[in-house]
Amino acid sequence: MPQTLTKEQINYVYASEADLLNVALFGMTAKEWREENSDLKGNIRDYATLEQLVVLSNMESINALLIQQKLPQQERLVQLNSTAITQMQALVGSKGVKMLNQ
Question: What does the pLDDT average to over 61-66?
């Protein structure tokens, strides 16, 4: 389940939109994940759950809209994190998603 971001995470300037989405959903950048999981191959998204991948796809679309609206990165990050939390809460309890996981 995504956690609410810290002020430090919100104020950091992320080099890529992919890392912005990673932080909003997973709470860390791809580099941070690799450092914490040096024994695993691949990347953070390779180990994401079905629910996380669904939310990530939704967040990519939402982020594109927020960019069109010229929202600063910090504001987009806060909104994307809130969206990730709300959607994950809905999906984790969903019977339909549980059936897909079987």
Answer: 95
pLDDT of residue 30: 93
CA atoms within 13 A on the CB side of 19: 16
Query: Exposed, middle or buried, 27 (CB in 10 Å: 0-12/13-18/19+)?
Result: middle
Cβ neighbors of 45 (< 8 A, separation 6 or more) are 22, 53, 56
- The beta-carbon contacts of 88-93 under 8 Å, at least 24 apart in sequence, are 88/1, 88/2, 88/51, 88/52, 88/55, 89/1, 91/51, 91/54, 91/55, 92/1, 92/51
Cα dihedral sign, 18-7-92-26: positive
Looking at the chain, which runs of residues are DSSP E strands? Answer: none
CA angle 14, 45, 16 (to 5 degrees): 20
**Domain coordinates of the chain in residue numbers?**
7-101
pTM of the predicted model, to two decimals? 0.81
